[in-house]
TrEMBL record:
Pfam families: Asp_Glu_race. InterPro entries: Asp/Glu/hydantoin_racemase, Asp/Glu_race. This is Aspartate/glutamate racemase.
């Protein structure tokens, strides 16, 4: 049975992502590694440091032993994941790429919400690079949901979600769609908003993109 190894920085994500992966990749099994320090150190430094990149590389190499693919579910680490990809013998994925590719396919004016500045900027760069690679032009409206990540870390999801909703209500009228840059934000908005297509989140789209690559589906 093939194995997808997932590396997380938020403890709640294994339970959120495994059911999606099991549905998208029947016949696969899944392993999970949670290392909150990869994110906390990046937050503390204000950017990815070389030491954090090296620790992520070690985590990825360890996860790849015995696995057929590796998925890193922290968008803050996405650019480090891209840099590691050529060095790994198995496919290596970042959770936000599927969401970004869908956003660029569907919209010219894209809102980006994040609860961390260390995620907001890399997500914007990924959107711009993806658009350039496909010959599309996009404009971005980025907003940081100030304080929301600290609320989540303190266990106050209600306040976290309220801050995300407030930012969404500000940005949504000005753009074609909004992306929530972090997997931990995916359930912050009401189901009706997510179902209406005005919001893209990374868990479902990220897992779908991984599954399409691993199974050859389009």
């Amino acid at each position: 049975m093939p194995i997808l190894a997932m590396i997380h920085t938020v403890p709640a994500l294994p339970a959120r992502l495994e059911p999606l992966a099991a549905q998208a990749l029947p016949g696969w099994s899944f392993t999970h590694t949670v290392d909150e320090s990869l994110l906390s150190e990046t937050i503390r430094a204000g950017a990815l440091t070389e030491a954090t990149r090296e620790r992520l590389a070690a985590r990825v190499r360890d996860a790849a032993v015995g696995a057929d693919a590796v998925l890193v579910t922290c968008s803050t680490l996405g650019e480090a994941v891209d840099a590691l990809r050529p060095t790994l013998a198995v496919p290596l994925f970042r959770i936000d790429r599927g969401m970004v590719e869908e956003a660029v396919r569907r919209a010219r004016r894209i809102g980006v919400l994040a609860t961390l500045s260390t995620t907001l900027e890399p997500t914007g760069r990924l959107i711009e690079a993806t658009a350039a690679a496909t010959g599309r032009e996009v404009t971005l409206l980025a907003r940081l949901c100030e304080g929301a990540f600290a609320d989540l870390a303190a266990g106050d999801r209600e306040t976290h979600d309220r801050r995300v909703r407030e930012a969404f209500e500000e940005v949504a009228p000005q753009v074609d769609l909004v992306v929530l840059a972090q997997a931990s934000m995916a359930d912050a908005l009401p189901a009706a908003a997510r179902a209406g297509g005005a919001v893209l989140t990374s868990p479902e789209l990220g897992i779908a993109a991984v599954a399409a690559t691993l199974t050859g589906r389009t």
